[in-house]
Design goal:
The chain is 17% helix and 45% strand. It has 275 residues and is of the alpha+beta class. The N and C termini lie close together (7 Å).
Length: 275
Amino acid sequence: MRFVKMHGCGNDYIYVDCFTQAAPQNPGELSQRLSAPHTGIGSDGLILMLPSNSADARMRIFNKDASEGDMCGNGIRCVGKYLYDSGLVRKQVMTIETRGGIKTLEMLTEGDVATGARVDMGVMSFNPAEIPVRSACNEVDVQYNGRSLHFFCLNAGNPHAVCFDYYPDDEEFYKVGPQMENHPVFPERANISFAKTVNASFIKARIWERGSGATMACGSGATATQVAAYMLGKTNKKATVELPGGCIDVEYNPETRRAFMTGPAVTVFRGEIDI
């Protein structure tokens, strides 16, 4: 199987071009096996790039625990870069089908090479049933280690919960992250963001990704964090979210409830592996 290793702000995936080769069987199991850092390729998961009947292309995301994801903000920028650079979809504006809906990308280019993208992340949902979260509203308090953590929840193409009153250190992050991801209040699990606002246009965050754990960055998580910050009166409509792997710019339109995410996409290497 031919593959490309790519990353967006350090959030790295194994990308498989299923336009020019057959899609692999059992992609969830394959993602789990190939994502292993010592016995596999090493990554946050596997992304398949496929033809679509309703968009320029389709992406399927498999986390490193073998589960299939709905949407990946960093991943979709890399998909756009691969499609643009390879000539499969040589468009400045392209559409990508995901389980979280069809997303529109405006490619950022230098010469003939794509360097990143501005992604229309779609309409944000604060409806508890659509997130989903077991609550009468989208804000919940969850008990952890003798303290109450307040989460602002929303669906940004997948479920997110954002906390601004607790910013764990490395040791605590690896304890609280999986507990919150799998908390019963989130029936389909959730991506968990711990954030702090530096000022009205800058946020620092670390995100525990549903199905992948601690990653260097999460595009949809950065989007959810900025939208939550704006809704809570902490930031302006546009802000930069700093993650361990780099910065992502997010702009939110409260009138339409649409969010736009801008960030880089980088090719690391290409390879071929016997599966």
